[in-house]
From TrEMBL:
Superkingdom of origin organism: Bacteria
Subcellular location field: Cell membrane
Protein name (Swiss-Prot/TrEMBL): Zn-dependent protease with chaperone function
Lineage: Bacteria, Bacillati, Actinomycetota, Actinomycetes, Micrococcales
Listed Pfam families: Peptidase_M48
Family according to the record: Belongs to the peptidase M48 family.
Length: 379
């Protein structure tokens, strides 16, 4: 799920933040400069629309935005490889243990663990299938369908967003409501666009700006890595959960049957220690093996993992840019300025480096600055 804003939770020390923002804005500026030099067609994917570079008003119909994946998505997908490998290893290990425990299995059963792992890998893509989206929205993200009045209200702005993106009449996306008074919106899965109940008080271009930002996430493929990361980290999560359950049950028994103290504690610790050791050894062997195969690939993977949170913030800038390219820049700035007045920005300066690194969203003032830099192009 990629909410429009989560900036107020995390924020940086002033100095580092300034360096970071200076870099970001510099990069955006260079991109635009390059666009001017080499012509608009090169930048269609980069800026969302060539029309904006040429300065045409986007309130008229524009060329249809294509769905794709941008570089932030590519980096994040590469960053998923380690957890994917660990997950595959756990499944093959678990499958082998199960097959090994069955007496007199036929020879082909040796492939079952690999089949299991392959199915699990492929199931990751299922989360974006159209027929799963309703389930995801309702049960996973806890969204609800808009009631009639809400649907009408949303549709008025949403249809205009789709029209400007050249996607009119395409029923691909589905709108949902998140039952909270917070002001936010999110894009998730294959076609889910959700607005909080609180954000329903926006209308016209302001609601359009919020929705266009979320459409930007979808059109740039930003929702893919999140769900895949969640799915591919499940095997490790299950191992950790099982360990925790055994620990809790073990300690619970210890409390009630005191004479079994030593035995149960021993069993629990052997199980926990054993499981962790097995996974840890597997991971170490995997790392050593991969390093032998190609240390360059390993460095690339490590970098991709480390850069993950940075990519999240870049993705926000890119979604904002989509809103700008659809003509919602000024409205989005107004929404952000209002949020700033509510104290949603990170001006507190109490947060540490870790929070700065992990922040899912750039601070509002940085986003506003970027948007305002992009606005003159549309004049
Ligand atoms: Zn966003």
């Amino acid at each position: 799920m990629l909410p429009l804003l989560r900036g107020w939770r995390v924020g940086p020390a002033q100095l580092v933040r300034n360096i970071r923002h200076a870099t970001h804005i510099g990069r955006a500026h260079r991109t635009f400069a390059r666009g001017r030099r080499f012509g608009a067609s090169l930048l269609i994917r980069d800026l969302g629309a060539a029309v904006n570079l040429n300065g045409y008003a986007s309130t008229t119909a524009v060329s249809r935005r294509r769905r794709g994946v941008d570089w932030t998505v590519l980096v994040k997908l590469v960053g998923l490889v380690p957890s994917l490998l660990v997950g595959l290893m756990i499944l093959v290990l678990a499958g082998s243990m199960i097959v090994g425990a069955i007496p007199q299995v036929p020879a082909w059963a040796g492939w079952v663990p690999f089949g299991l792992a392959t199915v699990w890998f492929l199931l990751g893509f299922l989360w974006f299938a159209p027929f799963v989206q309703g389930f995801l929205a309702r049960w996973f993200f806890q969204f609800r369908e808009p009631v009639n009045a809400e649907q009408l209200h949303l549709d008025r702005s949403w249809h205009e967003v789709l029209r400007r993106a050249g996607l009119s009449g395409r029923g691909r996306y589905r709108l949902w409501v998140e039952d909270t008074d917070a002001l936010n919106a999110s894009a998730a899965g294959g076609n889910i666009v959700a607005v909080t109940r609180g954000a329903l008080r926006y209308h016209g271009d302001h609601l359009g700006a919020v929705l266009a930002h979320e459409l930007g996430h979808h059109l740039n493929g930003h929702t893919y890595p999140g769900l895949l990361a969640w799915w591919y980290s499940r095997p490790l999560a299950v191992v950790r959960y099982a360990v925790r359950v055994v620990l809790r049950v073990g300690l619970g028994i210890v409390r009630f049957i005191s004479y079994l103290n030593v035995l149960v504690a021993l069993f629990a610790y052997i199980f926990i220690g054993g499981t962790y050791l097995m996974v840890a050894f597997g991971v170490i062997r995997l790392i050593l093996w991969a390093w032998e195969q190609s240390w360059v690939a390993m460095v690339v993977l490590a970098l991709a993992v480390i850069l993950g949170p940075v990519m999240n913030r870049q993705a926000e800038f890119r979604a904002d840019r989509m809103a700008v390219s659809l003509g919602y820049g000024p409205a989005l700035v107004e929404v952000f300025r209002e949020w700033q007045s509510f104290g949603f920005d990170d001006q507190g300066g109490r947060r540490g480096l870790r929070a700065l690194y992990l922040a899912s969203h750039p601070p509002l003032h940085a986003r506003i600055r970027r948007i305002e830099k992009q606005l003159p192009l549309r004049a």
